[in-house]
Amino acid sequence: MAEFWGPLAALAGEWEGEGGLDTAYSHSQHKVLGTPFREKCTLKSFGPVANGSQELYGLDYKSAMWRNDEENPFHTEVGYWLYDAATGEIMRGFVVPRGITTLAGGTAAADATEFTLHAAKGEANYTIGENLYLAKEASTLSYDATITIGDDTWSYDETTMLKMAEFAEPFSHTDRNTLHRVG
């Protein structure tokens, strides 16, 4: 499987994490808070997908995060992780139901246990799209993620730079978690 999916092969499965930390601006409390969260993530393999001579293999994914004992998640994502074994290009395309879509990318060797992804608003290839409200009130300028793969675990450390009315300079919203295989 690794020859086609590269480093993504290790991510296929069902995952949960209890030690997440979301550092973001709270509009209700008018300050930056570090909020613990729990997470569930499912990644299902598929492929190949042919783009002419390009052949991609990927993971269809869905994730949800909850604070404390909340019934409804405060954040969800759906999307795809993609790998091109011929070039080492690795991509993560996802949609957040706040009106944001991101295609982040980078390169990684097939046996990599750590890789980074980047997207920035207005870039030609790895870019960010958002709705009109967010473009005015909390525009996403860039997204960077480092993924680290262990034995039946994987971690992410993400930084999303935002242009917000509440701050004169871009604000750094961060998320991190370690997920453990449950299936």
Characterise this structure.
The chain has 183 residues and is mainly beta. The chain has a single domain, classed as Beta Barrel (Lipocalin), CATH 2.40.128.20. The protein has helices at 2-5, 132-137; strands at 13-26, 31-51, 54-66, 75-84, 89-96, 100-107, 114-120, 128-130, 138-149, 153-164, 171-181. The protein has an eleven-stranded antiparallel sheet with strand order 7-9-10-11-1-2-3-4-5-6-8. The model has no long low-confidence stretch (mean pLDDT 96).
**What is the CATH topology classification name?**
Lipocalin
- First and last CA, distance: 17 Å
The total count of strands amounts to: 11
Query: How many domains would you count in the coordinates?
Result: 1
Order of helices and strands: HEEEEEEEEHEEE
Number of helices: 2
> Which structural class matches the secondary elements?
mainly beta
CATH architecture: Beta Barrel
Strand content range: over 45%
Give the helix level as a range of percent. under 10%
Shape: globular
